[in-house]
Specification:
nine-stranded mixed β-sheet; single chain; alpha/beta; 16 helices
């Protein structure tokens, strides 16, 4: 009876393959997969993993690789075999990479040939593609797969490591049930349809691209294109040729697209849906994008790894008058704002946003203390400072750890950043608090310019728009801001670098 009622991550693909077997499921480079072919490839890959590496259900398998069709097949094969997939940022090296492999207890690392040399000694390695005996090569000979024990809805399927912007990464323990609930939330809140032609350009190791877009789009039977990276020219080509009509990207990538010299002269009228998230979108940037593409529907997606990661969405018909909002909770998420003691705060008052949801992880892998701190009083504590209005819309003020204590007064870094983004010479800005004898923390802006501006000019510009105590005490000019692959600015690195 349990198997009859279970819904698993790989089952999402199975249902689409039975419904539309001949429809194109996935394009990557020069390879195209129908839903039937992709389904058969996943079963073959599951058999290869279980028969060739001595693995047992529950073993952890890390994926340390670039975007590709083989990456997706490897993940779904792990899900089908009852293995726990561990996606790893392909930019990690040295101690950072060794930490996740060790902390997760991974038995096997699926990787690409150019990355294999970075994997620490002692780990079994299997190439996903572009090498003799790669997993992709094995798919040429289809094999049946019958699991010894069929995975259930409550089984672990993935350890989603947090981005580590404020502390060491933690492995959020995701079950099949949590992710399938999140897929349903994504489909309904983001208006995902079988007729859409999404392009997936962000790293597949990241929960947003994989679990908010690629898997939900496979669930509805859409035609998906996977790119190696968010290359502006390639995305523009796909849109102009009619092969792409929806794109997800974090604000840093949208800023890059908007600043690209071809953005103003390419025919992007075929782009129908624009999704943004993973970090806060500066309101001035969003206004510029909407002015250039007035017919484009924008969706703001907010959440975090622990909730699969989609928690709230601001739809295209909800932006007017609330451009800085991240929307309302999606189908399977309940959210509220609380004070330091966990008590509800009135609407319009800032506090920590907390969640209850079947999408939530089951805690952090092998970190009982951190799990207890995050899950308390029946709610998951997100670490995000937010305000809820009377209509139920949430606005993220800041990360709790990014709020600046300047002279005993709390300053939200996002508000200062938005003021700086209104200056035409500012391409990117990140505001942090740096130690200061007088102010405790001095409001400091780290700025990337795209034109001419001085420190005094930018401070005066901010003071015209903010209370003086909120304006930056100092401006630091840099060539680029440190970011993880999902586009989040690593403010911890900025604080460490300039402290």
């Amino acid at each position: 009876m349990t198997g009859v009622r279970s819904s698993t991550v790989d089952g999402v693909l199975t249902r689409s393959a039975r419904r539309t077997p001949g429809r194109t499921a996935l394009r990557y480079a020069d390879r195209t997969w129908s839903y039937r072919e992709l389904e058969e490839a996943v079963s073959t890959a599951a058999a290869v993993l279980m028969d060739g590496h001595g693995l047992s259900p529950g073993d952890r398998v890390a994926s340390y690789a670039h975007n590709s069709d083989a990456y997706l097949i490897g993940f779904l094969a792990c899900a089908r075999a009852g293995l726990v997939h561990v996606p790893v940022n392909q930019n990690l090296t040295g101690e950072d990479l060794a930490y996740i492999l060790s902390q997760s207890g991974s038995s096997l690392v699926l990787t690409d040939p150019d990355l294999a040399g970075r994997v620490p000694d002692g780990y079994a390695v299997r190439a996903l593609r572009d090498a003799p005996d790669s997993l992709l090569d094995e798919l040429a000979t289809p094999r049946a797969f019958t699991p010894g024990r069929e995975p259930g809805a409550d089984d672990l399927v993935q350890l989603l490591y947090t981005s580590g912007t404020t502390a060491l990464p933690k492995g959020a323990m995701m079950t099949h049930s949590a992710l399938v609930h999140e897929y349903v939330s994504a489909v309904t809140a983001l208006d995902l349809r079988a007729g859409d032609r999404p392009v997936h350009a962000l790293p597949l190791y990241h929960s947003a691209q994989m679990h908010v877009f690629l898997l939900p789009y496979l669930a509805v039977g859409a035609e998906n294109t996977v790119l190696d990276a968010p290359d502006a020219g390639r995305i523009f080509d796909l849109v102009e040729s009619g092969q792409a009509d929806s794109v997800f990207a974090p604000p840093t990538v949208w800023i890059g697209l908007a600043n690209h010299p071809d953005f103003a002269r390419r025919d992007l009228g075929g782009l129908r849906k624009a999704y943004y998230g993973a970090s806060i979108m500066p309101v001035p940037v969003l206004e510029r994008l909407r002015e250039r593409l007035p017919g484009l529907a924008f969706y703001n997606c907010f959440g975090q790894s622990e909730i699969g990661p989609l928690a709230t969405v601001l739809g295209p018909d909800e932006h007017e008058g609330r451009m800085d909002s991240c929307g309302r909770p999606v189908l399977f998420v309940e959210a509220k704002v609380v004070d330091e003691d966990g008590a509800d705060v009135p609407d319009g008052t800032a506090g920590e946003v907390v969640f209850r949801s079947p999408q939530l992880c089951g805690g952090y892998w092998d970190k009982p203390q951190e799990s207890a701190e995050a899950f308390r009083d029946g709610w998951f504590h997100s670490g995000d400072l937010a305000v809820r209005d009377a209509e139920g819309y949430f606005t993220i003020v800041d990360r709790v750890k990014d709020v600046i204590n300047s002279g005993g007064v709390l300053v939200a870094s996002r508000q200062v950043e938005d003021a700086l983004y209104t200056h035409p010479a500012v391409a990117e800005a990140a505001v942090v608090g740096l130690p200061d004898e007088r102010w405790i923390e001095a409001v400091t802006a780290v700025v990337v310019l795209r034109g001419e501006a001085t420190e005094v000019e930018l401070i005066d510009h901010a003071r015209e728009r903010l209370a003086h105590f909120k304006a930056p005490k100092k401006i630091l000019f840099v060539d680029g801001l440190p970011r993880n692959a999902s586009g989040k600015i690593l403010k911890r690195e900025l604080r460490d670098r300039f402290a």
